[in-house]
Design goal:
194 residues; mainly alpha; 7 helices
Length: 194
């Protein structure tokens, strides 16, 4: 499944490139979802608690939200439509599979580590966005399509609101872990980071 997700991103880029549609300002795999899908074989081939805790919170907070409120520029039955749903749905499925198969259960402090990595990534995107004239992860401006960001004030206020919301979504993503630990998982078999 990891290889399939990675190939989906590569094939989509190739289709765009061969049709003269590839735009480095929007088509590079720099959004979290595309980056995780492109690097899925590296992320998921060998179980790693430290990698997984970050991927878990980002996918269940961001990718799942992207499925609920899709930012699609192409409708059914375009290859962009299928790529969007394969990548987002595939990431959620693979994270749930990874969680259940390897018992790498995130802890409360995993939310903080994920928040730190998320902000490091956002800061790394700023010079890339400036250099490319792009807007990856919407750190330069709000998306053109109407979105929930429209309710969070102008730039950079909406980024600060999203910082708070990120932690709230991380906490929501942790709720199933709390429930599963209480009712389903034997804590002696859970692998946690040290």
């Amino acid at each position: 499944m990891s290889l399939f997700l990675s190939l989906t991103v590569v094939i989509f880029s190739w289709i765009h490139w061969t049709n003269g549609l590839f735009n480095y300002r929007v088509d590079l795999p720099l959004s979290i979802c595309n980056l995780f899908a492109f690097t899925a074989p590296l992320l998921f081939w060998n179980p790693s608690y430290r990698r997984f805790e970050v991927v878990y919170f980002m996918v269940l907070s961001g990718t799942l939200q992207a499925m609920i409120t899709p930012d699609l520029y192409a409708g059914f039955p375009s290859y962009g439509f299928f790529k969007y749903w394969i990548v987002h749905g595939g990431l959620v499925l693979i994270v749930v599979h990874y969680l259940l198969s390897f018992n790498l259960i995130p802890e409360p402090r995993s939310m903080l580590r994920t928040f730190v990595w998320l902000n490091i990534y956002l800061l790394a995107l700023v010079p890339i966005n400036l250099w490319l004239g792009a807007n990856y992860f919407y750190v330069m401006e709000k998306p053109l399509n109407p979105s929930i960001l429209d309710y969070f004030g102008p730039w950079p206020i909406y980024i600060l609101v999203c910082e708070v919301l990120a932690m709230a979504f991380f906490a929501l993503a942790y709720v199933p872990i709390v429930i599963a630990k209480k009712y389903f998982w034997n804590t002696a078999t859970i692998s946690v980071g040290k």
